[in-house]
Specification:
alpha/beta; Rossmann fold; five-stranded mixed sheet; 4 helices
Length: 122
């Protein structure tokens, strides 16, 4: 087995609403990208979508609270997807505020129409 070095634990932020199935599929691609780059990605919203009801205010609040706690425990915060962070979902904006308050390293990634993932300088 080849030794593996993990650079950091990273929170993967990606929009969910709208095309939920498509956004979850795209989010999983960013998670895989992080794994392959040697990072330990965390994306609790992927699991949360399977068990919490986004339309139930109590479930939404619980999911976001768990996301905030997870962001606070990570080393980096990656905003992934097409939308600019300020134009992204309210959930991502709130997660970003936690990351900024904690002084986390922030990175931004987008995916081209061909599926290529590229980092964008923030």
């Amino acid at each position: 087995m080849v030794p593996v070095t993990i650079h950091a634990v990273v929170y993967i932020a990606h929009p969910i609403s709208g095309d939920v199935a498509g956004n979850l599929a795209a989010g999983r691609k960013f998670v895989l990208h992080a794994y392959r780059m040697g990072y330990a990605p965390v994306a609790p919203w992927i699991t949360g979508c399977g068990v919490l009801d986004e339309n139930n205010p109590d479930d939404r609040a619980l999911g976001l609270a768990c996301d905030f706690a997870t962001v606070a425990a990570c080393d980096q915060f990656w905003v992934c997807g097409d939308a600019e962070p300020v134009a992204a979902s309210s959930g991502i904006r709130q997660e970003l505020a936690v990351a900024l308050a904690r002084g986390l390293i922030r990175r931004r990634f987008i995916m081209s129409a061909g599926g290529l993932i590229q980092e964008v300088v923030v």
